[in-house]
Every structure is written in structure tokens, then in C-alpha cells.
UniProtKB/TrEMBL annotation:
Residues 2-123 form the STAT transcription factor protein interaction domain. Keywords: Activator, Coiled coil, Cytoplasm, DNA-binding, Membrane, Nucleus, Phosphoprotein, SH2 domain, Transcription, Transcription regulation, Transmembrane, Transmembrane helix. Residues 164-191 form a coiled coil. GO terms for cellular component: cytoplasm; nucleus. It comes from Cyprinus carpio. This is Signal transducer and activator of transcription 6, interleukin-4 induced.
Length: 734
């Protein structure tokens, strides 16, 4: 088991994708491990997989393998491993009908292992399996292959093809020399052996024997190089497919604001290069058949190259620009699909790409469904090649969903929780390939709505899907619960993306959000590992409110983006809990409201807290927060003890110059009347006060946060207001 002993330490460096392809489900890694010695003792290379006369011998090997595996299972003290091995031994029965397939599988595994170890030897100065590209971890911890290393693999493949071509040319030269020597040998045969020229005959005979030996060695080397090249191509292409899947995963995560490099240029170059290598290897294989007939391994290599080619062609269709993930019926939208092998398509008839909408259940089937669940308008587009950008794309510019057929809903499931997708299909032919290929690509999940009031809830479904789904999942399964710390990452990423700020949410913000979603305002413990459910996120309304956590958080993002982005980015205030008295979100209205608290000193030495009438978004549109703070004369300093003009100077509006038409400019000024006692609370003069002017006996505490001393934001959400015709006019009625 020398080969397995060398291979075992390297397994930890192999990506899961490579391991799954190296050890398929029909021959799992466990079999290779437990039967390593026996497997390496068998003469798998002596089989001609196309010779049915060797099938009885292959069946004997299969029976022996099953028996050995069962013996290993019986003597295994670990009951879990014992049951697992017994299950695997039963599954090996799939080879009973085609025992030669077992021979092919084991032989290919051993070849790939030898190739991998050869590659490690070639790069002995580097960590094991560096040639298998591993990039930085993704957000969910899944390793991503590095694009730059893929170029190194392709370069090595190209060199391997050149070596095969040189070997072929050497064989051709040897054959010509051999033909010449044989011809000369025939011309001197039959002469008197005592003739002095007879020594020349012996010399030529020796030369012919040497040429024949050299030819035989070179021919074997040619086949060996072909086998190595095919194995290397399979591994390199597996890395490419993994990178394409990673690109799609990164594109999916971009919905919640995760950084995403959408440049497909390097992947397109990689695809085109591998297609060229595949074409050259197929050509070299046919030349082997021409020169030597159908030699051993010919059909195996031919099948491998055909399979690799089909996989490459089918995985090169990607959705470059995704459709909106919340689509309203009767509304226009666009999407772009790109084919990474577009320059290699056979010229002639235009390639028409067709789109159709499919359900989650249909997406799981993986085949083009016969049943239409929706009517798409402008659902076809032609794959067009742009010579300037070298891109081949089909752009659906004015697509629209006219109607949609919904599935039966379970329990309290709403229409905004139902996920669909767009399926793109076409048939095309690649230059150098005889038969056309049917290929398809699927979009990210979308939610179809019929009214604008459903958009926020539909977006909640999309956010949950993008943030918490796993790579290579069954479409479109998501967990019902996730750890709170994972939710924090998603909320912060979405907040930064939506507000367009570089300042993320911090631990104070997360603690406040946890208190809100878990309805535990008095708990100070760490919420990191507490599970949060989809129902808590956007099905159950917050206690005492008429809206969900997501609906409330979406309102926070909307207000911050439209009215307070610069203040947030500069760190002027924090999103925190109601105890901090810096930012307060209160849920009694649909509008996002900003309220300022002012502390007054009374003539009797007491102190009063005055709530200024909340500012609506319309108020802040007419005069910004900075200008309003400047205008409130009773506010002179902000925490810890800074003049308000120093803190807010950069946010003040520059006075308008005189109008050229002679009119005097005017401005809106915020005036506060402290004499109005309707919202004033009088506090005895000897009451201890905290830094926010609050009685220490009050339930309010504080958090040490910079700048705004008396500033609060009250956020609310009133569902009825969502449907009000006055929503966009900034009119508020509590």
C-alpha cells in the first residue's frame, strides 16, 4: 500500500469537490482506505475494458472485494463504522451487471492518485497540493480556488500537450529512419557472407533493432503522456468548475452587500484554454489510432475526454446579470446570460436562448419542466458575440411576468415566502464537435408579487435565502433557525450596502437589536449563540406593535439612507437601545421620526426634560438635522462637553447668495418654545441625574457613546400607513 501511504497525508489539502470526483459515490474513500493493500496488489492495468472475455475475471475481483469489505466490517469494533461498511459493501452490487466498470473506476482512481503525487514531487518546495488552487475563505468559511493558480495549471497542461506533440514528431522521425534502414537492408541482403560488405549488413541490422526499440519506448511514453494529460485536464477542469460555482455563490451573497468581483474575463479565458487543450488531446488520440490502431486505453481516454468536454460546455452558461429578486407582475425587468465559450460556438444558425419561470419543486428536479407555472413576455433572446469585449451574451431587456400560478401553501405560509426562479435553456454546437449540446442555467431565487405593499416581506424572504443558504444546496432549502451572530453579520452587511456607508453596526447596536428581536429588553447577557428563527425575523410582529422585526429594520435603513447617512458615517450618533438616550427607535408610527430631548434648568433649581415635536422625513428633507440642531438655541453643547457648532459645523447649510432677480432669499428656521409644558416633566432639584439629564431612579441607563447629548430618533412602523395615499407626502398622524 505504498501509493496509499503517500496519498493519505495529502487528502487534507484537497478541496471537497476534488475528493468527491476522485472517490465517487460508487467507490467511496472508505473502500480505498480499508482495502488499500489488496487494491494495489491487483493488476488493473492488464485489463482491456473493452474486451468482454475478461469480464469473468473482473467479476471475481468484485466478489473478492465485497467479501474482504464485509470481513473488515465484522471485525471493526466501532458500530457506526461497521454499519457503514456493510452498507457500502451492499452498494458495490451496482457493478454486478458491469464488472468492467469497477475495473475502470479503480484504475482511474489509481492513475489520478499517481498524477497528484507526481505534481507534488514537481513542486516539492511548496506546500502539498499547491497546484490545486485554494483562495481565501468565503464568508461562510468555504475555501475558494484562486484564479491565478488556475493559469499555472493550464500552462502546465499546454506544456504537456507540447510534449505529446514532440513525442509524436519523434515517433514520425524514428519511423522514417526505420523505413530507410529497412529499405537499405533489403538492398544488401543475399550477398556473400564472406564479402567485406557483410559487416555493413550487421551494422544496419543492429541499427534497425535500436530504432525499433527506441520507437517502442517512445510509443509507450506517448500513451503515458496522454494518460497523464487527461488526468491533469480532469483535475484542472474540476478546479475551474469549482471556481465557477464559487463565482455564482459570491454573486448570491452580494444581495446582502458582500463584496463581489463580477469580472468573468479570467474564467472565460480559463474555459477557452481548457477547451483548446481538450481539442488538442482528442486530436492526438485520433493520431494514435491512425499510427497504431486501437491500442489499449484508447476507448477509456476517448470516453474521459468526451465526458470532460460535455461537463465544460454545460457549465459555461452563467447568469451574468441576475433579474431582480423581487418581481412585480406586469412590470418590466431585464437580465443577461453569458456563455463563456461563445467564441468557440460553431458559426451559422443563431443560438436562441429561451427563459421560463419555474417553481422551487421544479428547480429541484434539474430538468426542463413540461408544465408552465407562469407566463413570461419577451422570453427569448439571441446569444450575440461582441468582438470588442469578446463577450457572448443574451440580454432580455423587456421581460415581464404576465401571470403566475402559485402552489398550495402550507399553514401560515404567505405568497411572499414562495420562491421561483428563471430557467434559461438553449441548444448549441461547438466548433470541432459533431453533435449539439443542450445546456441550461438557473437564476437566483425570485419572489413574485402582485402589489407594491408585498415588496418588503418578499425582500425578507430573499435576504434570509441569500444570508443563510449553503453552497450546493438543494434548491432552495434554507435553515429555519440560525445563530444570532450569523444574523448580525447579515444585518450589518445589508445595512452598509443599503445605506451606502463604510461604517458597520457594532456590538452595542447588535445587543440592542437582539433585545428587540428576542423581546428581552432587560437582559444583558451575550446573545451570540442564541438561535433566531424565520418567524422571529419576519412572521411574528414585535410585542405591542403591528409590524415585524424586518419591517422595522428596513425602516431604519430607509431613514438613515435618505436623511442621516452622513451623520451615521461620521459617527455622530449610534443605533442603540432605549437606555442610551442617543438614538431611540419607537414603534408608534409608520414614519421614521427624529426627536430631540432638551434639558432645562428651572428658576427653583429644578430641571425639566422637554420632548420636541418629532421631525418627519419631510421635515428633514426641507431642513437637515444639522441646521435644525443649530437653530435650537437651548441646545448649546453635546456629549461629552463639546460646543454643538464644532460638532455639526460641517453639516450646516451654506447661506444662499442674493437672487439675481432682486428677491431676498429666505430659509426655514427651527424654533422651540420651552414655555409649552405639555410634554415637560418636572424633577425635584435634589434628584440624582445621570449624564443624559435623566433621574438615576428612572429605568433609563446609559451607554458611553460620542457626540450627541440630547438627540434621539424614534422609529416606528404602522402597517395601515403603508397603504395610505399620504405616505409619500410625509404626513403623519399618530
Amino acid at each position: 500500500m505504498a501509493l496509499w501511504a503517500q496519498m493519505t497525508p495529502q487528502l487534507q489539502f484537497l478541496p471537497t469537490q476534488i475528493l468527491n470526483e476522485l472517490y465517487p459515490d460508487t467507490f467511496p474513500l472508505d473502500v480505498r482506505h480499508y482495502l488499500a493493500s489488496w487494491i494495489e496488489e491487483q493488476r488493473w492495468e492488464n485489463f482491456d475494458v473493452d474486451n468482454m472475455e475478461q469480464e469473468p475475471q473482473a467479476r471475481r475481483l468484485l466478489d473478492q472485494m465485497v467479501r474482504l469489505l464485509q470481513e473488515v466490517a465484522q471485525h471493526n469494533p466501532n458500530v457506526v463504522e461497521r454499519v457503514k461498511l456493510q452498507h457500502i459493501s451492499r452498494n458495490l452490487s451496482v457493478f454486478q451487471q458491469q464488472p468492467m466498470q469497477l475495473v475502470r473506476t479503480v484504475r482511474d482512481i489509481l492513475r489520478k492518485e499517481r498524477h497528484l503525487l507526481t505534481q507534488v514531487g514537481m513542486h516539492s518546495n511548496f506546500p502539498p497540493f499547491q497546484q490545486i488552487p485554494q483562495g481565501p475563505p468565503a464568508t461562510n468559511g468555504t475555501p475558494q480556488p484562486a484564479r491565478e493558480d488556475g493559469k499555472t495549471d493550464v500552462d502546465n497542461l499546454v506544456l504537456k500537450v507540447l510534449e505529446i506533440q514532440n513525442c509524436r514528431q519523434t515517433l514520425h522521425q524514428l519511423q522514417e529512419d526505420l523505413n530507410w534502414e529497412k529499405q537499405e537492408m533489403e538492398s544488401i541482403q543475399g550477398q556473400n557472407e564472406l564479402d567485406p560488405q557483410n559487416s555493413d549488413q550487421v551494422t544496419r541490422q543492429n541499427r534497425i533493432q535500436q530504432l525499433e526499440y527506441n520507437y517502442s519506448v517512445c510509443a509507450k511514453k506517448r500513451m503515458q503522456l496522454l494518460q497523464e494529460a487527461v488526468c491533469a485536464l480532469e483535475l484542472c477542469q474540476a478546479s475551474l468548475i469549482l471556481r465557477i460555482k464559487s463565482w455564482r455563490w459570491e454573486q448570491h451573497r452580494a444581495t446582502i452587500g458582500v463584496q463581489f468581483d463580477d469580472n468573468l474575463g479570467p474564467l472565460q479565458t480559463w474555459c477557452e484554454q481548457l477547451l483548446g487543450v481538450n481539442s488538442n488531446l482528442r486530436q492526438e488520440l485520433m493520431l494514435v489510432k491512425r499510427d497504431h490502431g486501437v491500442v489499449e486505453q484508447f476507448h477509456t481516454l476517448q470516453e474521459s475526454l468526451a465526458h470532460v468536454l460535455q461537463t465544460l460546455i454545460k457549465n459555461s452558461l452563467v447568469v451574468d446579470k441576475q433579474p431582480p429578486q423581487v418581481i412585480k407582475t406586469q412590470s418590466k425587468f431585464s437580465t443577461t446570460v453569458r456563455y463563456l465559450l461563445g467564441e468557440k460556438m460553431a458559426p451559422g444558425k443563431p443560438v436562441l436562448l429561451k427563459a421560463q419561470i419555474i417553481t422551487e419543486a421544479q428547480a429541484r428536479q434539474g430538468v426542463v419542466p413540461n408544465e408552465n407555472v407562469g407566463e413570461l413576455i419577451n422570453s427569448t433572446a439571441i446569444l450575440e458575440h461582441n468582438t470588442a469585449s469578446k463577450n457572448t451574451c443574451a440580454t432580455f431587456r423587456n421581460m415581464s411576468i404576465r401571470k403566475i400560478k402559485r402552489a398550495d401553501r402550507k399553514g401560515s405560509e404567505s405568497v411572499t415566502e414562495e420562491k421561483f426562479a428563471l430557467l434559461f435553456t438553449t441548444e448549441l454546437t461547438i466548433t470541432g464537435c459533431e453533435s449539439p449540446y443542450s445546456i441550461q442555467a438557473i437564476s437566483l431565487p425570485v419572489v413574485v408579487i402582485v402589489h407594491g405593499s408585498q415588496e418588503i416581506n418578499a425582500m425578507a424572504t430573499i435576504i434570509w435565502d441569500c444570508a443563510f443558504s449553503e453552497p450546493d444546496r438543494v434548491p432552495f432549502i434554507v435553515p429555519e433557525r440560525v445563530p444570532w451572530k450569523q444574523m448580525c453579520e447579515a444585518l450589518s452587511s445589508k445595512f452598509m450596502s443599503e445605506v451606502q456607508t463604510q461604517r458597520c453596526l457594532d456590538r452595542y447596536n447588535f445587543h440592542f437589536l437582539a433585545q428587540k428581536i428576542f423581546d428581552q429588553p432587560d437582559i444583558t447577557e451575550d446573545f451570540s449563540n442564541m438561535p433566531v428563527s424565520w418567524a422571529q425575523f419576519n412572521k411574528e410582529v414585535l410585542p405591542g406593535r403591528t409590524f415585524t422585526f424586518w419591517q422595522w429594520f428596513e425602516g431604519v435603513m430607509d431613514l438613515t439612507k435618505k436623511c442621516l447617512r452622513d451623520y451615521w458615517s461620521e459617527g455622530v450618533f449610534y443605533l442603540t437601545d432605549t437606555n442610551s438616550k442617543v438614538l431611540i427607535y419607537r414603534g408608534f408610527a409608520v414614519k421614521c421620526l427624529l426627536c430631540v430631548i432638551v434639558l432645562f434648568f428651572c428658576s427653583d433649581g429644578g430641571r425639566k426634560i422637554q420632548n420636541i415635536q418629532p421631525f418627519t422625513k419631510k421635515d428633514l428633507d426641507s431642513a437637515g438635522l444639522g441646521d435644525r440642531i443649530r437653530d435650537i438655541n437651548c441646545i448649546t453643547h453635546v456629549y461629552p462637553d463639546l460646543p454643538k457648532n464644532e460638532v455639526f459645523k460641517k453639516f450646516f447649510t451654506v447661506p444662499s447668495p442674493p437672487n439675481p432677480d432682486g428677491y431676498l432669499p429666505f430659509k426655514l428656521t427651527t424654533v422651540v418654545n420651552p414655555g409649552d409644558q405639555r410634554s415637560t416633566a418636572s424633577i425635584p432639584p435634589d434628584t440624582p441625574m445621570d449624564i443624559f439629564g435623566q433621574p438615576m431612579s428612572n429605568v433609563y441607563g446609559y451607554t458611553h457613546l460620542p457626540f450627541l447629548f440630547f438627540l434621539q430618533v424614534f422609529i416606528g412602523w404602522c402597517i395601515k400607513y403603508l397603504f395610505s395615499p399620504h405616505r409619500n407626502q410625509g404626513i403623519f398622524s399618530p
